[in-house]
Amino acid sequence: MQLSSFIQSLLAVAVMAPSVLATPVAVSSSLEERGKIMQRSYVGTCEQCSLSWDGDLKCQCKKKDGKKVSSTLDLNGCFVNLDGFVYWRRNGGFLNGMSCIVSDYSHPYMLASCKPISGPLKDSIINLDEKIHNMDGKLECHV
């Protein structure tokens, strides 16, 4: 079996200069930085979430001070229907005009069935935690 020249080059670098590959990466351990990271994931900081038929994601979310508040996000502002498939897009209006329906929701996954240009409905499963974040108690879509 013959290795590609690219892989051979990588192996040569690994053997000849292991210190280059083992260079440590600076990681912030401050509580402030960890708090910012935690606030980004709504799954880690919000509970009792539900998704209505018209696309409102409602949760009880923690603020930075630890208090829980109710927050609602209209997912029409986060997704678009492109030929039957759901994609992240600001102000996409994927539920407008009944082009899509929310078929199921299992925190944080949403199943949406959408009309393509022609043919039967198509299903999309979306992990809402990928781009929906808790920003100090407020659900926000970052697309």
Provide key terms for this protein.
alpha+beta; 3-stranded antiparallel sheet; 4 helices; 10 strands; 21% helix; 38% strand; elongated; disordered N terminus
Topology, element by element:
Layout lengths: L4 H12 L1 H4 L9 H10 L1 H4 E6 L4 E7 L5 E7 L4 E4 L2 E4 L11 E7 L2 E6 L7 E6 L4 E4 L2 E4 L2
Antiparallel strand pairs: 1-2, 2-3, 4-5, 6-7, 7-8, 9-10
Q: What structural class do you assign from the helix and strand content? A: alpha+beta
* Spatial extent as radius of gyration: 21 Å
Strand order of the largest sheet: 1-2-3
**Shape summary:** elongated
Task: Give the number of DSSP strands.
Answer: 10
Largest sheet: 3 strands, antiparallel
* Low-pLDDT sequence parts: 1-38
Proportion of strand residues: 35-45%
Proportion of helical residues: 10-25%
Cα separation of the termini = 45 Å
> Which series of helices and strands comes N to C?
HHHHEEEEEEEEEE
- Residue-averaged pLDDT: 79
Count the helices. How many? 4
